[in-house]
TrEMBL record:
Source taxon at top rank: Eukaryota
Organism, as annotated: Cafeteria roenbergensis (Marine flagellate)
CDD domains xref list: VOC_like (cd08357)
InterPro entries found in the cross-reference section: Glyas_Bleomycin-R_OHBP_Dase, Glyas_Fos-R_dOase_dom, VOC_core
Protein name in UniProt: VOC domain-containing protein
VOC domain boundaries: 61-188
Length: 202
């Protein structure tokens, strides 16, 4: 049965919040930019599964993202246990995960692979590029940050509020998976401003 939080998010999506872009039910509205407790892990997996079911009737198609990794077992531990994503199909060379109702695939490309190390300044932070992740609610952002800290995740950019007082005001955090792929999770203080058009002064 879908949680009340997932149901509310899906109802918001159905009501026409297509302006929030690649929206997802449950814990997040997923957004690609290229990327605890046992009870928390179960809730996250259940939310992701509920969203996948709800998405089947949605007009917004799920995105598909494939990323390289150097070790599938380490990827499984990170995406399956640390982030709590539900695993789908897999082979000896790749694994599928539901990233809040969207399809993330990790592909083994060899032990030598490590993610690129490019950066771009954003509101005083050196943001790693490329990166991917999800736009969450503020509540779920802080819950995920707590979960990551419980798993001793090393942050590239610690959870904090940026673009204060601007339409793009948001909480953000950056970290890497075991293969060096960068992830960002964010939360708009006003979710309707996720795609607000305005000029940002660097």
């Amino acid at each position: 049965m879908m949680s009340s939080r997932a149901l509310r998010a899906c109802r918001s999506l159905a009501a026409g919040r297509a302006g929030v872009g690649a929206a997802a039910c449950g814990l997040s509205r997923a957004l690609v930019a290229v990327g605890a407790t046992a009870t928390g892990a179960v809730a996250l997996a259940a939310s992701s599964a509920s969203c996948a079911g709800a998405r089947a009737g949605s007009s917004i198609p799920p995105f598909h993202l494939a990323i390289p990794v150097h070790d599938l077992e380490e990827a499984k531990a990170f995406y399956g246990e640390v982030l709590g994503l539900s695993e789908g199909r897999s082979s000896a060379k790749w694994q599928d995960y539901s990233l809040f109702g969207h399809q993330l695939v990790v592909h083994y490309v060899g032990e030598a692979y490590r993610g690129p190390e490019w950066f771009n300044p954003v509101d005083g932070d050196e943001v790693p590029v490329p990166h991917f992740g999800a736009a969450l609610s503020v509540e779920d952002f802080h819950a995920l940050a707590k979960r990551l800290r419980q798993h001793k995740t090393k942050f590239i950019i610690e959870p904090h509020l940026r673009f204060k007082g601007q339409p793009g005001e948001q909480y953000t955090m950056f970290f890497k998976d075991p293969s060096g792929n960068s992830l960002e999770f964010k939360a708009m203080t006003n979710p309707n401003n996720l795609f607000a058009k305005y000029h940002v002064e660097d």
